[in-house]
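SAMPLE LOG
Freezer: B-3
Tube label: C17
Construct: single chain, 373 aa
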Amino acid sequence: MTQTSQRPLRVLAAMSGGVDSAVAAARAAEAGHDVTGVHLALSANPQSFRTGARGCCTIEDSRDARRAADVIGIPFYVWDLAERFREDVVDDFIAEYEAGRTPNPCLRCNEKIKFAALLDKALALGFDAVCTGHYATVVLNEDGSRELHRASDMAKDQSYVLGVLDEKQLAHAMFPLGDTLTTKDEIRAEAERRGLAVAKKPDSHDICFIADGDTQGFLAGRLGTAEGDIVDESGTKVGTHEGAFGFTIGQRKGLRIGHPAPDGKPRYVLDISPVNNTVTVGPVESLDVTALTAIRPRWCGTAPSGPGTYTAQLRAHGGETEVTAELVDGTLNVTFTEPVRGVAPGQAVVLYDGSRVVGSATIATTRRAPALA
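STRUCTURE (predicted):
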């Protein structure tokens, strides 16, 4: 098994205006590829400046990306994908929360924007690959097939949000940062050595299109408010809320329950029902999940056949857990070796075989551990 061929390619480097994508573009150019930089304008009304480490796609980001391209010495363009981003990522995000699910917009963006809309346009224009600053590795096998693997440095690995890529997309993906054991400080130092002004720019965090980080306020502004009940596991009302969409499974803070539980322990969100606008809360032990079903599977290569043993990752910065999984009539059935907590419909479950990404699917239902007598 060898890494992706390094023959000279025509490469379209997606440049967000941050340090990772700038260094990735620089490394691709240094490797001898014919690189063109492109900044994706994803906001219909971009702000002039970011708010610290929050938000992206601002005018400032576009200018930072252009300056980096100038230093690297590559052509640079800005492509307007704001309408596609709104339809495929933002509207989907709102609809998922309205349905009581917890989506991951970064996966949706990688699937629908960076490796669908952007890649399709790049191939139509004669480019061979799209380059991004993600920390992951594409491996080329002797038979010509490709695999997606974790980054060499697990601390920076971003393969979870790339688990939606299929083998055809992997054939045109380039991740120059994925196979280097370097810390983020070293990446910044490299950017400084290369004369890239983004060397000290803060990383963006949270959801890029919610610059102030107030997800509940963002959703309320688009879905309105609708008072409903907060109930315990017995159905007893213990409080009220202004919209079930403002909660996520496993949430502890911000419940505004007027009185403590009988045992005095904290309560967590166990269930969200958009049908009757009810939020159910209970003890942390009730969050234990033993199995799940997931839909819309996407495989980074050939779909697995029959039951298999894997490790699974359930959130972008979460750890791995051992599972058995089987695809049955298009639905992925996953059973955990040990119970896990905080699993919510709408999240992605990504399966791994060692460092190899097997594929990803969207969690539809969960099965809780039986309550102790």
